[in-house]
DNA sequence: CGTTTTTTGATTGCTTTTGATCATTTATAA
DNA sequence: TTATAAATGATCAAAAGCAATCAAAAAACG
């Protein structure tokens, strides 16, 4: 018997490479060997095949995504790679809800950042955000962009605290698209930082509709600072990992649930 | 033998260089070595390649963005590099004026951006800014950072407009460090955008001391939107290009002039 | 079950990339 | 201006990556 790690078959390897490439735009051969439990030779063969198909461009040491025209602000933290596929699909579902001339509040967080990336072409909306990374993402072009004023929380690269109220209170949003760290029926919506929580509350109170984007891992989790009950949200977009009873409960509370 | 630092692939390096160049307009080889975990030789090779492609222009010590005519009308020749150096020196002089526990307003602009870079170690101050680039520069660490809220003006990557007043009016600054596009005795201080002018006025009105950083090229120039008379400034820092009569005039008006 | 085909991983020699050295050029300061 | 320091380009050796080949292992097939 071989080691516990299953051998990865060719089509599956290709899928993984595609995913990694979409996430990072650049992959190293060495990296892929570990990820795929395959030898460098196999990885190179795979890359060569995929290059023939036009999926990627090989470079010394690895490969880059062929649609590398997209620009990323900086190669900073990339722990956001976890569950990236689902997050992206959640973001895409949220994108479908945005209508022309909407004024949208976009919260900080990795899922909402994915959404920001999808908004680069939407010049027909106004986007208000407290996320420095979202702003950087859209600094080159895209929606009319309004930043919330306040103190930078470096850990999350968001603008938070009491000062944010000064900006937010003068605005109204058609939709507020929020992220969360924890979500339970009993404890409601929670996040790591009180300043963050305050700003979230402000934003939600000014919104006609609150759309919550949450990877299913967040369900059942509780963090430090409470920023609202689950029924603050009008619409939850999550992935298939959501427990059925939880989904039923939300629907009973008149919260729309979209599973992607 | 290299240790823990991740290897950076060639296309990654190029992308990072492009990004940095877009943010700063000028990059030093030394700087890039650190950023890319590469040797000077490699960095020079990369720069040479990119120069061939026309992405940048190499100068002694590093490279300048080829599209640095954002605010510089005559930015094609060697003057760019020279001006960049002078701007850095102006920024350095301004740095010397900043004292522990100061609360500083930092205006947008290329010279002030140079100053932002010098502030990465100053954790002993509070910095308020409307410059997205300055914020990005300091997003990793440095002073307590407060961003002004308002609309993003993409051309200059600054936050401007009436909304900025909501944030600024609640704050007081020990020093406001301002840039300008034009500066004459008669027309005063002028900039390209009315929204920009409004925000500048707001910031200066809340400051105990107004320090103006201006490359000497700006002297004698007039732009579109007036944001104050020259005597709004308490202190001008500029380079040797300042005409002597102009300097005398300012001093007669009780404005301190520092020439670097 | 055995044979054939495909896929994989190891070995080898070759190419590209990288970083160190050093003489030369270029900037800065006195 | 000259002196001093810094940056550069050329060269070269080491390291990393690569393609080709081949044998072993898996999968497919009868």
Describe the structure.
- The structure is a homodimer of 260-residue chains.
- Chain A is α/β, with parallel strands linked by helices and 260 residues long.
- Chain A folds into two domains: 10-65, Orthogonal Bundle (Arc Repressor Mutant, subunit A); 79-259, Rossmann fold (3-Layer(aba) Sandwich), CATH 3.40.50.1360.
- Chain A has helices at 10-24, 29-36, 40-53, 84-97, 110-118, 132-137, 164-168, 194-205, 244-252; strands spanning 26-28, 56-59, 62-65, 103-106, 126-129, 144-147, 150-153, 158-160, 173-178, 182-184, 188-191, 207-213, 225-228, 235-238, 256-259.
- A seven-stranded parallel β-sheet of chain A has the order 6-5-4-9-12-14-15, with helices on both faces.
- In chain A, α2 (29-36) crosses α3 (40-53) and α4 (84-97) crosses α5.
- Chain A is globular and about 55 Å long.
- The two termini of chain A are 37 Å apart.
- Residues 1-6 and 68-82 of chain A have low confidence and may be disordered.
- At the A-B interface, α6, β6, β7 and α7 of A face α1, α6, β6, β7 and α7 of B.
- β7 of chain A pairs antiparallel with β6 of chain B.
- Chain B binds a DNA duplex (30 and 30 nucleotides) through α3.
């Amino acid at each position: 018997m071989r080691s516990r790690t299953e051998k990865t078959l060719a089509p599956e390897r290709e899928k993984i490479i595609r995913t990694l490439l979409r996430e990072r735009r650049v992959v190293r051969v060495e990296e892929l060997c570990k990820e795929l439990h395959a030898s460098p030779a196999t990885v190179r063969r795979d890359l060569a095949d995929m290059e023939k198909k036009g999926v990627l461009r090989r470079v010394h040491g690895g490969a880059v995504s062929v649609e590398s025209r997209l620009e990323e602000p900086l190669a900073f933290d990339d722990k956001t790679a976890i569950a990236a596929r689902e997050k992206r699909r959640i973001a895409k579902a949220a994108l479908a809800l945005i209508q022309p001339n909407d004024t949208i509040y976009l919260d900080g967080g990795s899922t909402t950042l994915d959404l920001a990336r999808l908004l680069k072409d939407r010049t027909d909306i106004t986007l208000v955000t407290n996320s420095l990374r979202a702003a950087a993402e859209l600094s080159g072009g895209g929606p009319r962009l309004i930043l919330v004023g306040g103190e930078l929380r470096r850990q999350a690269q968001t603008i938070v605290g009491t000062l944010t109220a000064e900006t937010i209170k003068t605005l109204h949003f058609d939709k507020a698209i929020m992220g969360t760290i924890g979500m339970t029926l009993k404890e409601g919506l929670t996040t790591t930082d009180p300043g963050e929580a305050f700003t979230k509350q402000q934003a939600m109170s000014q919104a006609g509709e609150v759309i919550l984007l949450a990877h299913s891992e967040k369900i059942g989790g509780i963090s430090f600072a409470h920023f609202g009950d689950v029924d603050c949200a009008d619409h939850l977009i999550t992935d298939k990992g959501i427990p059925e009873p939880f989904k039923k409960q939300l629907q009973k509370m008149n919260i729309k649930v979209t599973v992607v």
